Amino acid sequence: MRKMQKQCFFVFLFIFENLVVTILGYSSGAPSSVCSSMLPSHNANPQSSSPPYSLTVGKSAYSPGDQITVTLSGNSYTGFLLEAQQVGGGNAVGSFNIPSNSVYMGLGCNGVPNSAVTHTSSSSKSSLSFTWVSSSSNSLGDIEFRATVVSSKKTFWTNVKSATVKANVVSNNPSSNTAAPTVTTTSTTSTTTQQGSFTKNSFNISSSGCGVTKTCFSSPASCDPSTSSSCYFMSSAATQDGIQFEIYGQTNGYVAVGFSDDQKMGSDDIYSCALNNGAVNVQHVYSIGQSLSSPLSSVNVSTIAASYSGGVMKCSFITKNAISTQQRSSTNTYFIFLANGPTSNGNMQFHPSIPIISPSKIDLLGFQVASGSVIQDPLIKAHGALMLIAWMTTGSIGMIIARYFKHVGKGKKIGGKDIWFQVHIFLMIMTISSTIIAFILAFVSAQSWSGGAHPVLGCIVMGLALIQPFGAIFRCAPTDERRPIFNYLHAVNAVIMKVLAVATIFLGLQLLSSSSTSAQWTVKVMGGFFGWECLIIIILDVKKFLKRKAIYENVSKDRLEPLILIIYIIGNLCFMIALLTGIGQT
């Protein structure tokens, strides 16, 4: 009995072993463990006769980043393993594009995803085409495609080869007596590079290869810089010379990519493509808080190509420098920033719009595809909301009541003062309090002076807002002969504050809209808001003029004036709610 059980066990083991070998052998594709040998686990020797299959290639020469179509055809076959290898080498190079729902799949050889392809089933095939993408490095040399083709379990051929594909020689170090080639663009501005460029007549950056041969980060998510000029894009890929980066975006000075351990500026490694006297230079800097260091040495940075055309900047470069942040990372994962702004003498200036930031850390060498958006600090949102409420609602209503509605409720007092005066005081206290809080929130968020017209005007408004209540506290008595002087200065200061506040809000909304496409309508709504306020003021001024001329009938006075105020407040609140919604959505 035991002998019989033992025999049954060995029979089961034999069947299981052959089943596993069959599965690993060819039915569902080759495993990555055979990348080097390219031999299937079929317990059989390869055929020695000439293979009844051929590998044809779509190009006889290639350059870094090129795509080559490879076709495996011949007699019917059930399985295969295909790689691109250097002539005389034995390791897979480059990678293959793997379409969804295809009859083949990618294999990761030597830790490089999709560097080889194999079948997904044992169904019969006679011809398959593949797209191979070369490395962005120019150091692969001449290559050839090699395949192992399986006709049946015991019948297969190895070393099926294509014709040799020559490598185009691209020099990144032009000799000193030869001018560095330029990248020709459709713009009237041609650009040169610091250390060399492609000798091609065109320079293109695209999303092709994202997730397969390179990591890509963009905004919006569907960005393809080869077809759209209104998006921002960066990619990274490992080469034998370092890390190759591509940067693309609209600017009037520079486009920069930053690598950070968090989503705030400070202690970040930054590379930029910047205009300098008509040329595009790759610049390497380090952020210290909200400031930038002087440009770092470019010895380890070699420019491949760069151009600026139609307001669009694009460049490609290789760096041998390790990414340096406050917390050194061994996994090459960072938050990525994309920013644009002006330059001065070729150096980066503070970016006027909020940068695009990745929602999570991205592996620069992990073939990831990610998108980002402008991340608004909640403190900045609160700052904007409070300023809007202060200067477009409480402040506006308070000023209009003081100018046009002093006689409403005449004779009725609260705390010994006229109703209009108490309402005016309450609304202006709310206005100044909101302004002070918003002012503090902005500096808490920025933690330093950011520069630009918006903060400058904001500080002026804050200063004038503090003068106004102190002037009111120490004003002279109503019967004093100097009281008209106070009234005049008080009114002039209020008008200046209002004008500057509105201008500051417009600038703030423009900053918001330039960083977020979903908030671009807020500037137009603010224009309508301002127009609505001007319309009401014109109506009230005309009405006041007619009253002085005794043209306006007193009988309708008490009915129309409160109605105008109510209509104004309702319209004001509608515009306010719309703008607050826009700020909240960013």
Tell me what the structure shows.
By secondary structure, this protein is an alpha+beta fold. It folds into three domains: 144 residues, Reeler domain (Immunoglobulin-like, Sandwich); 160 residues, Cellobiose dehydrogenase, cytochrome domain (Immunoglobulin-like, Sandwich); 208 residues, Four Helix Bundle (Hemerythrin (Met), subunit A), CATH 1.20.120. It contains seven helices and 29 strands. β16 and β17 form a beta hairpin. The longest helix has 33 residues. The radius of gyration is 35 Å and the shape is elongated. The protein starts with a helix and ends with a helix. The relative contact order is 0.07. The N terminus is likely disordered. It is found in: Membrane.
Per the principal axes of the C-alpha atoms, what is the gross shape? elongated
* CATH fold topology of the largest domain: Four Helix Bundle (Hemerythrin (Met), subunit A)
Parts with pLDDT < 50 across at least 5 consecutive residues: 1-26, 170-202
Number of domains: 3
CATH architecture of the largest domain: Up-down Bundle
Question: What proportion of the residues form beta strands (DSSP E)?
Answer: 25-35%
Mean pLDDT: 79
Our Rg estimate from Cα atoms comes to 35 Å
Q: What fraction, in percent, of the residue positions are helical?
A: 25-40%
Largest sheet: 8 strands, antiparallel
**Count of DSSP H/I helices:** 7
Distance between the termini: 77 Å
Give the structural class.
Answer: alpha+beta
